[in-house]
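Input sequence (415 aa), recorded before submission:
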Amino acid sequence: MSDVNLEHSKTKKSNTLFLKRLIPSEIYWWLFFGPWTWLFRTLSWVIPKEKNLYIFGSNEGKYFSDNSRALFEHIKTNEPSLRAIWFTNNDNVFDEIDSRFPGSVVRSPSIRASFLYLRAEQAIISFGFQDLCKMPWIPSIEINQLWHGIPIKKIGLLRDSTKTKSDYGPTWPIFTKWMNNVNRFFVASEYEKRAHIQAFGIPKDRFILSGNPRNDRLYRIRKEDRKPENVILYAPTFRSRHHSDQNSEYVLIHPDLNEKIMHDFLVQNNARLIVRPHWIEGKRNFNSNRIDCLTHDDEPDLHQIFTESDILITDYSSAFIDWLILDRPLIFTPYDLRTYQHENGFLEDYRDLVPQPICMDADEILVEIQRNILDKNRYQENRKRAANRYLGDGSFGICERITDIIKKQDRPVKP
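Predicted structure, token format:
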């Protein structure tokens, strides 16, 4: 970095720290929910709506990903009468979308983003209102929540508020304050519906059984023949926003499995391992040429990694539910189950929530991987029962079904 850029970076960081000291978080949120929101509400009465203008966002504006992305791409490809605009605060995301769908992305916050937001009929999100990058809720826009995972652990109102804020940072108050303003909450099953009602206190008549848009691709390819390549995907759950990025503190599948052990095992079984950290966490560096780390910056679409993997290993991540569609081997490694359950809690007993095999010991994990490499149908019936519970009668065509519902404004419940 040049001296000029370095000095600019230091000045920018210094100014940011100064503003944080000058404006405590309480004042910031007051300004956000006060004058900023009042201004948008006032303007929403004056600025007319543009018919069929839909705005999208995900991951607090950081990534082009998840259910929002799947529905956005479907609309851009199949619904020429609809104008879909993606909101982002990430320059790389802006460039990616603009190259594929010119004029269909906006940087937010900005004057143009504010104008588009005020003109939009519908908003589509996958996490919280921060997906739209500091655009405040206004009554004139209908909010469609697609969410980003079917929970098995306690979230939202089911968790201690102090722990939730510690985990998810300062944007959490925005999420909790606005969650009840959702008009439609699309879910895959009765199980998911019940979980979200408990977690967010949203009235049950705002939920629509539809499936998750991102799963259309998995339903389409699940019956395709694919020659196994012994690719193992390790996708652990999110534990804490304050989790260290240091590799020395990172657990690779199990505390008793280090990189050398895993490398030797992978060589012996002609296999590769892909490590997928949670989107909040950073890159992991490995010396082994058999182990790769793919972050959200490398590949924001987890399902793209799914299609290239043969075995999924996880602990408490609900990502396993989408994986069930592919009917490929699945292994659970909850090495810190007692501690994790105490700190986070589950909606039911963990062993009732996930299908076998559940491996607590390092040796057991390696043995189970070998068995699944040789026989991909191990525990197939267990996986099918879990898929029926979490995904219901899922099938291809989810994006089309949801688009039709939003276009017709079916069951719009005004908050």
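Checked by second reader. The chain is about 40% helix and 10% strand.
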